[in-house]
Design a protein that fits this description.
heterodimer, A: about 270 residues, alpha/beta, about 15% helix, B: about 220 residues, Glutaconate Coenzyme A-transferase, three-stranded mixed β-sheet, 13 strands, globular
Chain lengths: ~270, ~220
């Protein structure tokens, strides 16, 4: 059987250039929310590979000296597709000097673009962002809400019950029966995805832990090559199939590592 | 007398109902969690993938894998569930959240909201705000009535780039409470802060609004 486990992140990256997986100008998805659930060692290995001109799809951009901040420091990232990048001064400097291009996506739209890309769906309509800068230059179309159609059936452009669909301006959930405007967003697919899970088996079945799950499961489905950094690896068969979050077929390589798990906002109560 | 920050929070907490699934924005709205009325069961959702936020952890309970959308360490309550970001926004965008409370830079008389960017300033991103205002069943904004320099925040038309349009159901400020009337397509003033009047509120507001038949004083 093809061996997916590698002793270190550097080992997992060693032949990726010769295989054509790693190249300048490629698109990389990196899991995590803030510094929670980021593949720490895989990010460092990507930095050490020296590949540049990267487009990075990641909800955030790490902090100055950790997470994706590492690749910003070395100027290996050309463009970020993110929803929020608040905690990184290096990012701010490069963004303001036009060294770094940024495409902001609403967080749910970003999550769904990745899910759609991985699921073979090239585009979808969403109400998120209608009437905002996010929808500028994008196609919009009026639909009834999924819950408004008779028996759930909503026929684009035709509506239901013989009524035509005309755009209403209502964002609020109303009983008026008016159609609502939706904006067309495209699916995202990357050359490489770096994800972080808690536990894997040797086949690559993954289990995530708590809120470290976030964007990782979708990203594991939405790239040509997928590497998972995990805290535990067990023999195939030891994970109950019912407990698997990401089926092993999505994962190409697995690296076991003990992460630092830096905390951005340590907030405690007395007791 | 304008309401204090804490009084705004307490007023916002009165919008909670037993059994509600609620998302609280970062900042003032987060504090609403401290004012859930006794005996009321409210489930707090965190858009990074948790339903059932518990109290902040003790020093020994801190877990780097368990944070809220503001990246603070938290705990999970009994019955909590974890899910991916796409499931989380299916919950939000799909209308499965009863209430969200969030802050704003501007709210327009049409119920538009602007709370994510100021042109010319460093843009940090909208995070999940656009999805929340587009998808949650009831959107409540809690904000100061005017900016620090006295500028209007409840305006005819937002001058800042929008987060969402026609989406705000209720506006709670330090001066008054407004409910959006779907039939009249405008906000209606329903409550004023102690010592404020319809006239004093109007003097500090650019937006047009109606006035309820019986305007109450916010209970503090």
């Amino acid at each position: 059987m093809l061996k997916k486990t590698f002793p270190t992140a550097a080992d997992a990256f060693a032949d990726l250039k010769s295989k054509g997986v790693l190249r300048d100008g490629m698109t990389v998805m990196v899991g995590g929310f803030g510094l929670c659930g980021i593949p720490e060692y895989l990010i460092a290995a990507l930095r050490d590979s020296g590949v540049k001109g990267l487009t990075c799809v990641s909800n955030n951009a790490g902090v100055d000296d950790f997470g994706l901040g590492l690749l910003l420091q070395t100027r290996q990232i050309r463009k970020m597709i993110s929803s929020y990048v608040g905690e990184n001064a290096t990012f701010e400097k490069q963004f303001l000097s036009n060294e770094l291009e940024v495409e902001f996506n609403p967080q749910g739209t970003l999550a769904e673009r990745i899910r759609a890309g991985g699921a073979g769906i090239p585009a979808f309509y969403t109400a998120t962002g209608v009437g905002t800068p996010v929808a500028e230059g994008k196609e919009t179309r009026a639909f009834f809400r999924p819950g408004q159609g008779v028996g759930g059936a909503t026929i684009p452009g035709k509506g239901f019950g013989g009524r035509s669909v005309k755009p209403g301006s209502e964002g609020r959930a109303t009983q008026s029966g008016e159609a609502r405007e939706y904006v067309l967003e495209t699916g995202l697919y990357a050359d490489l995805a770096l994800v972080k899970a808690w536990k894997a088996d040797e086949f690559g079945n993954l289990i995530y832990r708590e809120t470290a799950r976030n964007f990782n499961p979708m990203m594991a489905t939405a790239a040509a090559f997928v590497i998972a950094e995990v805290e535990h690896i067990v023999p195939t068969g030891e994970i109950n199939g019912d407990a698997v979050h990401t089926p092993g077929s999505f994962v190409d390589r697995i690296v076991k590592a003990t992460p630092e798990k830096r905390i951005e906002q340590r907030t405690v109560r007395k007791g | 007398m304008p309401l204090t920050r804490d009084q705004i929070v307490q007023r916002a907490a009165r919008e909670l109902r037993d059994g509600y699934i609620v998302n609280l924005g970062i900042g003032i709205p987060t504090l609403v969690a401290n004012h859930v009325p006794a005996g009321m069961d409210v489930w707090l959702q965190s858009e990074n993938g948790l339903l059932g936020i518990g109290p902040f952890p003790t020093e020994t309970e801190v877990d780097a894998d368990l944070i809220n959308a503001g990246k603070q360490t938290i705990t999970a309550r009994k019955g909590a569930s974890y899910f991916s970001s796409s499931d989380s926004f299916a919950m939000i965008r799909g209308g499965h959240i009863d209430l969200c409370i969030l802050g704003a830079m501007q709210v327009s008389q049409h119920g538009d909201i602007a709370n994510w960017m100021i042109p010319g300033k460093m843009v940090k991103g909208m995070g999940g705000a656009m999805d929340l205002v587009a998808g949650v069943k009831r959107v409540v904004v809690a904000m100061e009535h005017n900016a620090k320099d006295g500028a209007f925040k409840f305006v005819n038309k937002c001058s800042l780039p929008l987060t969402g349009q026609n989406c705000v159901h209720m506006l709670i400020t330090d001066l008054a409470v407004f409910e959006f009337d779907e039939a009249k397509k405008k906000f209606v003033l329903t409550e004023v802060a102690p010592g404020e009047t319809v006239q004093s509120v109007r003097a500090k507001t650019e937006a047009g609004f109606g006035v309820a038949e019986a305007v109450r004083t916010v209970a503090v």
